[in-house]
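It is worth pausing here to work through a concrete case rather than discussing structure prediction in the abstract. The textbook approach is simple: state the sequence, then state the predicted structure, then interpret. We follow exactly that order.
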Amino acid sequence: MDNDVILKLSKFAVISSYAGLITVGAVPAFGLIAISIGIVLQIKLGELEPGVKTNIKTSRIAGIISLLLFPADVALLYILTK
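Step two, the predicted structure:
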């Protein structure tokens, strides 16, 4: 597979995970996209370039944080509407 496409996918994963953080976890799909792109690239390709590995690690961490923020959003919404 073309390395340019792989790098673009890893950058998209980072952008998606940051979007999940910016929305404070309100859209959990951003975090899921970021995590799943990294998992698929690692499973399908195995050995990755250092820049791609860094992007995947960053997107995985930020994606997990954005997913953990989602229940906090739901709880806050519940408290404020009660």
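Step three, interpretation. The mean pLDDT is 92. The chain is about 85% helix and 0% strand.
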